Amino acid sequence: MISRLIFLFLLFSLAEASANIKGKIIQNLKATNNLTFSFEQNVNGKTENGNCALLYPQKIFCKYNLKNNKILVSNGKSIVIKTDKSYYLYPLERTPLNLILNKNFLINKLKTLDERILDDQFVNFKFFENDFEVNIFFDSKTLDLIGWQTTDIYQNLSITFLASVKKNQKLNSDLFILPKQN
After folding, report:
1. DSSP secondary-structure letter at 77?
2. Do 116 and 95 touch, CB atoms closer than 8 A?
3. Distance CA 59, CA 75 (A)
4. Mean pLDDT for each 10-residue chunk of the chain (182 residues)?
5. Where are the domains of the chain?
6. Which residues of 18-36 are buried (b: 16+ CB within 10 A; e: fewer)?
7. Full-model pTM
8. HSE-up of residue 65 (Cα within 13 Å, Cβ side)
9. What is the dotted CATH code of the domain comprising 20-176?
């Protein structure tokens, strides 16, 4: 009888700890207005890196460490990927970033999802939305967003790792103005 009570106590403690970390991640996300970070991105085996500023809702500016001066900019409605020789403009809603950059969507989605604790370091949530598969990762200690993995409608796998994450920094709103075409 005592062993059953101990087992039930441990089971409830684990369930409470699990719910507690999800609740803390949601609270941290609610308190986050923006993030700055360095990143490493792997898209179908090709690795790139750089620095980003993310401003909720749905704005991002990334400068890649490439010779072609690649930048990615979202103004909340459209996304531009620009290099020295190319310019691509997409509706944001047609990309998985539409979901990742939407803090209110993420908060509501996290409330309905079960989390996975990976190596006691990462908390992962997985969901499918608008033909996109999204895995989102948080640091289990800082509770900050530290990456995402997406699969788009064309089955392109994109993995993005965040480092040196800083929250609620002063950002220049001009960063999120879409650049003009070359």
Report:
1. S
2. no
3. 5
4. 41 47 97 97 93 97 96 97 95 94 96 95 95 95 96 83 97 94 79
5. 20-176
6. eeebbeebbebbeebebbb
7. 0.85
8. 9
9. 2.50.20.10
